[in-house]
Amino acid sequence: MTVRASRAWKYGDNVSTDLLYPGKYTYTLRTPEEIAPHALEDLDPDFASQVAAGDIVVGGKNWGCGSSREQAATCLVYNGVAAVIAVSFGRIFYRNAINNGLLAIVCPAAVAGIATGDEVSIDLAECKIRCPAGEFSFPPMSPTVAAILEDGGLIPHLKERLARAASPSQERS
Which domains does the chain have, with CATH numbers? Predict the structure, then answer.
């Protein structure tokens, strides 16, 4: 599987969940249509109106640090972001990203080589990120994480597993 982006959006270190999705909306906005326009509004007010489906976000160290606010990941998903590549992730953001079907890759070398606006592709089979600065390798995902992402997130993954278990005639992977 290859993920292509028309554009990379690059940000710095210690971007908190508050900067990804403002806390003032946490309990008032509920639908994807309500949440999406507020993605990164305190960090980059133009992001939500200009991001395109398939774009990739690039972050520095400790991307998504802070609270366990799930909307910090879902606001990116609702805007069609294909992946986040970072030097490192806040552990709760990383898990929320995977649970919501958002590819999250740790690759410091790629982060150093990618600039805002670059075209970036991610080859999951080869564990390679390609951009104008070159080709960068990243560690493979575990089979469990790969299956969750392939199914579109944890809930769809569990539903798929339950459906397979209920229908013994289907092949199991």
Answer: 2-140 (3.20.19.10), 141-173 (no CATH)
